[in-house]
Design brief:
Blueprint: E1 6-10, H1 14-21, E2 33-36, H2 40-50, E3 56-61, H3 65-78, E4 84-89, H4 94-102, E5 107-110, H5 115-125, E6 136-142, H6 149-163, E7 168-172, H7 180-183, H8 192-195, H9 204-210, E8 212-214, E9 218-221, H10 235-248, E10 251-255, H11 262-270, E11 273-278, H12 282-298, E12 303-308, H13 321-328, E13 334-335, H14 340-349, H15 353-356, H16 362-371
Parallel strand pairs: 1-2, 1-3, 3-4, 4-5, 6-10, 6-11, 7-9, 7-10, 11-12, 12-13
Antiparallel strand pairs: 8-9
Helix pairs in contact: 2-3, 6-16, 10-11
The structure holds adenosine-5'-triphosphate and magnesium ion.
Residues 142, 145-151, 174, 179, 257-258, 309-310, 336, 338-340, 343-344, 347 line the site of adenosine-5'-triphosphate (ATP).
């Protein structure tokens, strides 16, 4: 299996640094995003004060087990929840190993660690999809049909992939008439619906077979269009597909059809963020209100966003951003004007805004919009700081 994880490593010795640097030469890790910063655990703790956390953090600390413990405490204060931490150290005793695993470290390696040891440690953290690091699921839905939700989804997916060069998987759940592949000028290998026929069969290898790549960081599961009469997919299969995708990439961008059914609502419930796109008319306002009321009633503090698209489509009679804010109690995260020439040109060329209109000012707005996602510092998800090592905790195991 090809791993697309983001990995940051903080070696303290030249040997470990060399072993880490060679990781992406391993076939399985050729697509991983690896960054190596020399300086061990103390450098890592300083680094994450100002930087977002990758899926895997590998730290080396060659001092005593108390030094490792202190380093982990400092890390726990600054690293975002759900990340895997692998420690490389000089301490070689079972008690120390147990203590570290109890504290939530995913793997402990006694140095010097070879490239193969490091690769094996990462793989062992993800043997079981449920324990793999989880990418963020961002679902896009229109308050009504045709509002521009898919256009926004594909442009956000592209922007996320190019912004930090992190892996993004786009899933187009409009099984018959989805345009995610078309919008990126791709020819899907197999329609995503076929991946959903048996929930138990869905695993990373199957997902790879259905994915079509766009550049080096964005892959999509979509359709080339079909009039086949399809039955509703099972909730179990849809949830499993998303679960596998989020174990393979930092972001999963889900394009939902404007269609209300059990599986659509279950995707909304499992998403980390939901982006509701609306156009400025009364029917959109009513349906956006229905959606936000439903989401707020069921999703506690999860992040819901509103995007007002085609905002100036009917200058005289349209509703304003203020009307939406007052009724929905949420300010638009992004407001996009009506520009049929631009969007028709991009759609017809199979290009995103960043590809076909690089200097358009909407690119910067999209970058800021994408930057708010990801539970990074300053975003809503960061407001509750992780408890000391609580984010790493899992049951003890013995070696
Ligand atoms: N700001 C905009 N200005 C002008 N046209 C736009 C704008 N945003 C999107 N469009 C166009 O609106 C049409 C519908 O967009 P899109 O398919 O993204 O909407 P949707 O909400 O996903 O629709 P559906 O309900 O079919 O899934 C497309 O032709 C797209 O190019
Ligand atoms: Mg759509």
């Amino acid at each position: 299996m090809i791993h697309r994880f983001s990995i940051e490593a903080f070696p303290q010795s030249k040997e470990t640094e060399a072993a880490l640097a060679a990781l992406t030469n391993e076939r399985e890790f050729a697509k991983a995003k690896l960054t190596v910063h020399f300086g061990g655990m103390s450098r890592a703790a300083k680094h994450y004060v100002d930087n977002p956390s990758p899926q895997f953090i590998i730290v080396e600390e060659n001092g005593t087990s108390d030094d490792i413990h202190r380093g982990l405490e400092a890390l726990a204060d600054v690293v975002e929840p759900g990340r895997k931490v692998i420690v490389i150290g000089a301490v070689n005793d079972v008690q120390a190993y147990r203590r570290l695993i109890n504290e939530g470290v995913s793997e402990y390696l006694v140095g010097p660690a070879s490239t193969a040891d490091i690769a094996a440690a990462i793989v062992s953290c993800v043997k079981d999809a449920s324990s793999a690091p989880k990418g963020r699921v961002i679902s896009f839905i229109g308050s009504r049909g045709g509002v521009g939700s898919s256009t926004l989804a594909v442009n956000t997916a592209w922007t996320l992939a190019s912004l930090n060069r992190e892996e993004v998987i786009g899933i187009d759940f409009d099984f018959n008439f989805g345009t995610m592949a078309l919008a990126l000028n791709l020819d899907p290998k197999q329609p995503v619906f076929e991946a959903l026929t048996e929930a138990d069969r869905i695993d990373p290898v199957l997902v790879e077979r259905f994915m079509t790549e766009h550049g080096s960081h964005l892959s999509v599961l979509s359709t080339s269009g079909s009039t086949r009469e399809l039955s509703e997919p099972s909730i179990e299969a849809v949830e499993r597909l998303i679960e596998i995708c989020r174990s393979m990439a930092q972001y999963v961008v889900v394009d939902l059809p404007r269609h209300w059914s059990g599986w659509v609502s279950s995707v909304l419930l499992l998403s980390d963020e939901i982006v509701v796109t609306a156009n400025p008319d009364l029917a959109n306002l009513r349906d956006a209100k229905l959606l936000f009321d439903w989401l707020r009633g069921r999703r506690g503090g999860a992040i819901n966003r509103l995007v007002l698209n085609k905002a100036d489509i009917a200058k005289r009679n349209q509703l304003s951003a203020k009307d939406f804010r007052d009724t929905l109690d949420i300010a638009p995260s992004l407001t996009i004007g009506f520009d049929p020439t631009l969007f028709a040109q991009l759609a017809n060329n199979g290009q995103t805004l960043g590809e076909g209109a690089k200097s358009h000012r909407l690119n910067e707005q999209l970058r800021q919009f994408a930057q708010q996602m990801g539970g990074k510092k300053g975003s809503i998800a960061r407001q509750a700081p992780p408890k000391l090592l609580g984010w790493l905790k899992r049951p003890a195991k013995t070696k």
